[in-house]
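Sample entry (429 residues):
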Amino acid sequence: MANTPITAVIVGGGHRAVIYADYSLKHPDELKIVGIADPDPERREMCRLKYGFDKAHCFESAAELAAVPRFADAVINGTMDHQHYDTSVPLLEKGYDMLLEKPFAVSEDEMRRLLDVIRKNGNKVMICHVLRYAPFYLALKQRVASGQLGDILNIQMAEHVSYHHLSTSYVRGKWANSDKSKTTMLLAKSCHDIDVMAWLMQPDKPVSVSSVGSIFQFKPENAPEGAGTRCTVDCPLVDSCRYSAKKIYLEHPDRWTCYAWADLEHKKDQTEQDRIESFKNGNPYNRCMYKCDNNVVDHQSVLVNFRSGATGTFNMVGGSAKSMRKIHIVGTLGEAYGVFEENRFTVSMIESDAPSGYRDEIVDLNEAGSEGHGGGDDNLTADFIRYLRTGEQSVSCTAIENSVAGHLTVFKADESREKGGQLVTIDLP
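Predicted structure, serialized as tokens:
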């Protein structure tokens, strides 16, 4: 029934899953959280109290959840990247629909096997590519789809990952070592951007890709002379190094709370002394930026060739002063360019009779709001609910079959990078 809320179970009660689940607190008529599967008993209880479901619907794992009769419409799967396939399959087989965090697979083989399961069972699965739902990118998509810019011949995109974000996620953090996380930097961080490129170009399709990248900055040979191994424990440069954990985390304790202070998650009223002690007792975010076990690239460039002959370029640059996503779309009639964080873009149309030879229009979207990925988090959750209720796909819809092109382009780009930039064919399923 359209007036009955969609019921969902959280699988992996981490930061991202809770963001989507919190939609139920603002819109209880649309979404109701009725259970959780998570190995952490304190996190299970925290979610149970927050969303108000019975202890009987608390499970330690996706496998344990799959072992009981299905009691909800859908699953919000926010497990770690390398767990997505193993946690999704038994629940899809059980008949659950799913909102699945990106990347939905960590290899091409996993991707194809997951698609086979979904096709066999007929599940509705959406991927959390939230940027498609941000007003900035949605407005660009509408301009492209309307034909206003003509045929698109080139898209230039860039993501600048700030030094403190790079530190938190890709040098000191969970996605720093591909042997552990099973993901590359491009897959973990920038599959959003490659997805946006593929989405903007639809119905055109990527056919080949080449890519290069490396670890440029954060490696042992670049460590300052005399640097220790743990910033606040044994490093004499703790007050002068720009990448000091003291500067990035202790002096800005609210910046990366759910990562840097994960070991204090269940402690109410954290104090500065609690955080200092955490750093003394093995907190990984206190490691020297130059002496971690990171093996993922800190910068990478990607060149995509499309079936029409159009091209797309994407540059991921880690360690910048501030985070920024830039885009420039060039068509045969005009172009559009802007910065995501500014929430506005310029459309320049060819106008040969004008004194300048072109006409500019500024599209300002700041009134649309800028919470959670530029407003994308709530918009995606709302669209997931509509998709489950009606089966209809919006222009932004990240149904898994519409998200394959971006993921496969990433897998092939990393294959190309490992082969020194060799051109690699993209064979879409």
